[in-house]
Automatic annotation (TrEMBL):
Catalyzes the condensation reaction of fatty acid synthesis by the addition to an acyl acceptor of two carbons from malonyl-ACP. Catalyzes the first condensation reaction which initiates fatty acid synthesis and may therefore play a role in governing the total rate of fatty acid production. Possesses both acetoacetyl-ACP synthase and acetyl transacylase activities. Its substrate specificity determines the biosynthesis of branched-chain and/or straight-chain of fatty acids. Its EC number is 2.3.1.180. This is Beta-ketoacyl-[acyl-carrier-protein] synthase III. The active site is at residues 110, 257, 287. One of its GO terms (biological process) is fatty acid biosynthetic process. HAMAP family: FabH. Residues 241-330 form the Beta-ketoacyl-[acyl-carrier-protein] synthase III C-terminal domain. Its main location: cytoplasm. It catalyses: malonyl-[ACP] + acetyl-CoA + H(+) = 3-oxobutanoyl-[ACP] + CO2 + CoA. Transmembrane segments: none annotated. The last Arg residue of the ACP-binding site is essential for the weak association between ACP/AcpP and FabH. The gene is fabH.
Length: 342
């Protein structure tokens, strides 16, 4: 038995914000942002568009890509929930008319899509589902301090989705082994301090107490996060290649989480991977957290750069700290643009 990727879809909110616009009011310049991150613009949610709407569109496109295949379970990976309770996945399932299926959210920050792949594979291997819809959806720009030049320029919004089904190991689209890890001892390097039960308990559960407003936004220790991302992604990617018995020369594409172009380049260098095999779309989308890997796969497929039968190395790193990698052989898929229009 194997898990086969058989559908792919994406969705981007229509509002594009370039570096010129986002640098207004910040102590920075468009050139500084691009030189440090590789980002020139990003998409941001606006009134009437949130995680639910992005997830619904991306999910519908993935199902269409899979030929309208019946879905047995839905997993939504997100770091920017619309509400603390309930999960958004049951709403998405209802809007997609998937029936009374299992539907739940999970969070592992920017590693969430890789963790979601492993979770979906587990559901299929356990016989709980034959087909799983996995969606990575984010409106994380709403969790970023608009006055913080170290985080505001980095993030963008969007959703990407895949359909996974039970199949045979020799089929194109088969997922390989996984490498997953975490280090909670460094959790404060990338965190939103307030808003959860820890903060509510400190204030007696009533209001926000004396919690500063900026505690409800992301805090990041950039240099330390950079170093951890490079080290963890490189080690995880190498571990999964070793388990799959793939040589570096056999890898056609390295699809890494789109956090920072310098991280991707350094990880590739550490692995001894040719620069032209590093897939990038961060320049126009920014860091879309759980959505970045499926949106990048969709872009590669649409451009014709990703061909059926090619070997793909996938790796991600995020808050937690968390990281994960996997490999797959790319299938022949019908894909469409991730723009908001139907």
């Amino acid at each position: 038995m194997a898990v086969i990727l058989c559908g792919l879809g994406g969705c981007l909110p229509p509002q594009a914000i370039d570096n010129q616009e986002i640098s207004k009011g910040l102590d920075t310049t468009p050139e500084w942002i691009e030189s440090r991150t590789g980002i020139r613009e990003r998409r941001m949610v606006s009134a009437g568009i949130g995680v639910r709407e992005l997830a619904i569109k991306a999910g519908a496109r993935a199902i269409a890509s899979a030929g309208g295949r019946r879905i047995d379970a839905l997993v939504v990976a997100t770091t920017s929930p619309e509400r603390i309770c309930p999960a958004v996945a049951p709403e998405v399932a209802a809007r997609l008319e998937l029936g009374d299926i299992a539907a739940y959210d999970m969070t592992s920050a920017c590693s969430g899509f890789v963790y979601g792949l492993a979770t979906a594979a587990g559901l299929i291997a356990a016989g709980i589902a034959d087909t799983v819809l996995l969606i990575g959806a984010e409106a994380f720009t709403t969790f970023v301090n608009p006055h913080d030049r170290s985080t505001r320029p980095i993030f963008g919004d969007g959703a990407g989705a895949v359909v996974l089904r039970r199949g045979e190991a020799e089929e194109a689209g088969s997922l390989g082994c996984f490498d997953l890890g975490s280090d909670g001892g460094r959790s404060d390097l990338l965190a939103i301090p307030a808003g959860g039960s820890r903060q509510r308990g400190a204030s007696g559960g009533l209001g926000h107490g004396n919690v500063a407003a900026d505690e409800f936004f992301l805090h990041m220790e950039g240099r330390a996060v950079y170093e951890q991302a490079v080290a963890r992604m490189a080690a995880s990617a190498q571990a999964v290649l070793d388990r799959a018995q793939w040589s570096m020369e056999q890898v056609d594409w390295f699809v890494g989480h789109q956090a920072n172009v310098r991280i991707l380049q350094t990880v590739a260098f550490e692995l001894g991977l040719e620069p032209e095999k590093v897939a990038v779309n961060i320049e126009r989308l920014g860091n879309t957290l759980t959505a970045s890997i499926p949106l990048l796969l969709n872009d590669l497929a649409l451009r014709g750069d990703l061909q059926a039968g090619q070997r793909v190395l996938v790796s991600a790193f995020g808050a937690g700290l968390s990281w994960g990698s996997t490999v797959l052989r790319w299938p022949q898929l019908n894909t469409r643009d991730s723009e908001w229009q139907d």
